[in-house]
Write a structure and sequence with these properties.
α3 crosses α4 and α4 packs across α5. Helix content is 34%, strand content 28%. By secondary structure, it is of the alpha/beta class. The radius of gyration is 24 Å and the shape is elongated. The chain contains twelve helices and 14 strands. It folds into two domains: 217 residues, Rossmann fold, CATH 3.40.50; 69 residues, Alpha-Beta Plaits. Bound molecules: adenosine-5'-diphosphate and magnesium ion. Adenosine-5'-diphosphate binds next to β2 and α1.
Length: 323
């Protein structure tokens, strides 16, 4: 059974096609990240799953029920992207309100509220009004609210948005704890570094299309690129390696390491043999990985040839357009 499943899912808002045939599958116990720039369609996908907006075409199911089914809604916790909790509530009274809404009995709420607020790290301020909370505290309260009824599936739309680095780490740790307790987590993010650190699997959504999907390992491994380093004092025979037919280049800012790229149908073996024959000692051999950001940039560039890489890179890790 998969917790979330979509097949050729399409959503149109008037002339705008926000989702153009999205097929995804999230299994129980995973932390699954949906990654993409602002406007990619991430929030729309969540809204379709929860039945907040109606799909235009294709299929979407949640916990084996069609998207939006009322009976399933109680088994799902949801942190909306732009939640604006009324400032006159305290953290405690807001949790009590949502708990009652979800049908959690009063006695259980009295125990559950302090525990959950403790878990997200704001129990010390639970009787202060929300209008006195920082953005990070509001975000934690939003996550606590999503956990109130102990849902099987937790859907978080930009959970670490507006949270400082320490807070982000704590929220990631919290997700790890929830996963360990058997919850499935589906999150949206435009923060690549975050996703890389926490998710089991990710999908990269670009203009309503899933352009890449897989485990972080699968996506960040560049097949067939090795970084080699020899014992100090030895010279890497770059010309000879190139003559074997392998593209090779020195890597700046390393201890004389060289990058060797495999060609169709070949392994690194002939290179190792050549080095051994010359009496050279390999002290460093690593199959190269790229960051999720590199994968994202390459993917987006190949989807849109001619996009200025520097332009897109400005602002470093967040990939969002507007913020
Ligand atoms: N209610 C709406 N009406 C019209 N267009 C919308 C609506 N909600 C979202 N969109 C458009 O759909 C696209 C995807 O938006 P969204 O799902 O919010 O993306 P993301 O969450 O990845 O930033 C954007 O072009 C956005 O302007
Ligand atoms: Mg969004």
């Amino acid at each position: 059974m998969s917790v979330i499943e979509t097949a050729d899912l399409r959503k149109r808002y008037g002339p705008i096609e926000a989702l153009k045939g999205v097929s995804l599958r999230v299994e129980k116990g995973q932390i699954y990240g949906l990654l993409g720039q602002n406007g990619a369609g991430k929030t729309t996908l969540i809204k379709v799953l929860l039945g907040i907006v109606k799909l235009t075409d294709g299929r979407a199911s949640l916990l084996d029920a069609p998207a939006g089914a009322v009976e399933v809604r109680r088994r799902v916790g949801y942190l909306p992207e732009d939640h604006a909790f009324p400032g006159y509530h305290t953290g405690y009274s807001l949790m009590d309100y949502y708990g009652a809404l979800y049908g959690v009995p009063a006695a259980e709420r009295a125990k559950k509220i302090p525990d959950t607020l403790e878990l997200v790290g704001i129990a010390g301020r639970m009787h202060s009004k929300i209008k006195t909370y920082s953005k990070g505290m509001k975000q934690r309260l939003g996550i606590a609210q999503a956990l109130m009824h102990d849902p099987e599936l937790i859907i978080l739309d930009e959970p670490t948005d507006g949270v400082d680095p320490m807070g982000r780490k704590e929220i990631r740790d919290l997700m790890g704890q929830l996963k360990a307790k058997g919850h499935t987590i589906f999150l949206n993010s435009h923060l690549l570094g975050e996703v890389e650190l926490i998710c089991d699997r990710v999908a990269i959504l670009h203009k309503g299309v899933v352009v890449r999907e897989g485990t972080i390992d699968e996506l960040t491994k560049t097949k067939g690129t090795y970084v080699l380093g020899l014992m100090s004092g030895q010279t890497f025979p770059a010309d000879a390696v190139a003559q074997l037919g392998f593209p090779v280049r020195p890597l700046p800012d390393t201890a004389g390491h060289f990058e060797v790229t495999l060609v169709e149908g070949k392994t690194i073996e002939p290179v190792m043999k050549l080095l051994a024959e010359r009496g050279l000692t390999v002290v460093h051999i690593v199959e190269k990985k790229q960051s999720l950001e590199d994968v994202f940039m390459k993917t987006v560039e190949s989807a849109e040839p001619g996009v200025d890489r520097k332009q897109r890179r400005r602002g470093a890790r967040p990939v969002g357009g507007e913020n």
